Amino acid sequence: MHRGSYYFLSYIIVMMAAMFSLSRAETYGTSSLLFLNEDPSPRCFSMAGVCSNSTNDADAAYNNPGLLGHMTESAISFSLWGAADGVGKYSFANAVISAEQYGSFAVSYLGYDSSEEEFYDLSGNKYNLTLQKDYAISGGWGIPFDERFFWGFNVKSVSSSLAEKYKARTMTFKSGAVYKSLDDFFSASIVLDNFGGTINYRYEDEKLPSSIKAEAGFRWQRRKQNIYFGISGKKILKENFIEKGAGLELELKNMPFSLSGGFKQSYNGSFITAGFGLKVSGFSMFYATQFPDSFGSPVYRVGISFNFSEQRDRDRAKVFRERKLRLKPEKLEMIDLRNNEKSFINDRGKQKIRIIDSVKKEEKKKNTQQIKKNVKSSSSTSKELNKKKKEKKEVYWQDWMLLP
Predict the structure, then answer these.
(1) Taking the domains of the chain in order of start, what are their residue ranges?
(2) Dist CA 318 CA 96 (whole Å)
(3) For residue 170, what is the enclosing H or E element?
């Protein structure tokens, strides 16, 4: 087993121990900062929270910082959505910078605003009041552990305001690890979120909604489409329930569209999720929705993202090679060669034709030069002969004049 594998297993053990400690220390209840458990990625949201099978997805890298170590592109993303009550609003912004051999860094913002509501005081005067306004600013970093293991962490600064009067701040962090096969066709992950930190509005400390999440996913590459499938389980340590989800995505290779859907069971009900995406070069837009199985209104969210380089597997392989990996770049280059075999053969054919045309032109040029040289040489020889003949005639004429 590689050294990175031992590190990864040690990390998993520490994560599980931390989860066990937190689950014993906390009591069941509901935190006022549940916005920290929101899924800001429309694509992952449409797949019932499945994210670990993503490649170069900035939003997914926020959900699990372990994917930061797997990212090879720099990207930015934005998303907006409404709360289930139809009043509150969420916003999210994220930026990922790929630092080549140093891994990837990320900076993000997640905010919640309950919007203003009208109230009347004892005198009958009307005034507007924002019941809750929260935001979290975070920074993260991710690197490869080994050829197949990737790790990352995210530190958050959380600020919350209740009724515009009671304000509190705290720090917390998120850490995640991802296993991906060399060809990225299989993935598994674990992430511990909102670990540590308490919030105190006035009198009593309240712990954040810490959670642990595990995922597994597969990817199949077909001639005309890519198929993604994954399952996930998430436990908010304060809740006596495990949130479960399964998602599927169909990505069309010859068209810039993708379709996705999923089913999720949460502590507040069961939901069907769906979404579609549009991708043109490095720009992508995704729309997702979630429908409850019984009562309640559907929830919608939309997001856009831009990757600064449209990279193929062979380009990703160059970045992984700069990060001191060897097996994974070789595998990705083989996949790129197989997936682009037809274009590769066409390119080689065109290259051979160019070489043959170049050789023919060179031979034609040489032949033309040789012909010109021969003509010039022939012309020169002809002039010499004419000159000799003329000299000979003159000599004959002079000799004739000297005859008696």
Answers:
(1) 3-339, 340-404
(2) 18
(3) strand 166-180
Q: Which residue has the tokens 């590459």?
A: 221
0.85 cut: is pTM over it? no
Q: Which residue has the tokens 């019984």?
A: 294
pLDDT digits (tens, 9 = 90+) for 344-396: 565 566 667 777 777 778 777 777 777 777 766 666 666 666 665 555 555 44
Half-sphere exposure for 82 (CA within 13 Å, toward CB): 11
Token couple for 8: 């990864």
Quote the CA–CA distance of 249 and 227 in Å, as a whole number: 6
CATH number for the segment(s) 3-339:
2.40.160.40
The amino acid occupying position 39 is D
Residue 335: φ, ψ to 5°: -65, -45
Give Rg (Cα) of the chain.
Answer: 35
The 10s digit of each residue's pLDDT in 325-340 is 999 999 988 888 877 7
d(CA 179, CA 295): 38
Task: Give me 12's structure tokens.
Answer: 């998993």
